[in-house]
Amino acid sequence: xxxxxxxxxxxxxxxxxxxxxxxxxxxxxxxxxxxxxxxxxxxxxxxxxxxxxxxxxxxxxxxxxxxxxxxxxxxxxxxxxxxxxxxxxxxxxxxxxxxxxxxxxxxxxxxxxxxxxxxxxxxxxxxxxxxxxxxxxxxxxxxxxxxxxxxxxxxxxxxxxxxxxxxxxxxxxxxxxxxxxxxxxxxxxxxxxxxxxxxxxxxxxxxxxxxxxxxxxxxxxxxxxxxxxxxxxxxxxxxx
Length: 240
Fold this sequence. Notes:
The protein is an alpha+beta fold. The chain is built from six helices and eleven strands.
């Protein structure tokens, strides 16, 4: 409740019904987990018949949910689009990145909207590769992690394993090379590429191998790998 004493939105029950619809939650326990609060906080809000403002902020940040839709049933359900934030009255629903409500009990049914980046990237002040945001995508929340970098494949080097246009999740904490695993690697004049990396101990180097036989192997020395490896591929999303 604000300083004016007026609450934002309709009754507590109406707002919570919309929250449950959008997040796929059913019980107060599940709702508390989604909001990151104690269950007793929900009981307190229900007694006051007023939804706290920080609930709206959490739901916007985590799910891209429109506070006006939650509070008043007005405008689109989601307002985080591939172009970023939009006011409640635009864009059209067909242009909005949205997800369907689904049972909270299934961990893969709960999604999070994240930024994905172009593999070409830009140039940082030190001359290195700099990620450039390219849009938004909803991924299962279980796919998210603090060290995640999501990129969209713009080449055919890893086809048919990873196709052009696929979304790839890189774990930037996993930069120690395990021979034969797939990594995001920085290459001169190419930017970020995805390749299978093999160890050639007798030549003191790593081999970067594409799945596509039309691409030749590339190499870099042991002393370079910390500057080359961006992260290991931990998941991918693509059409079959």
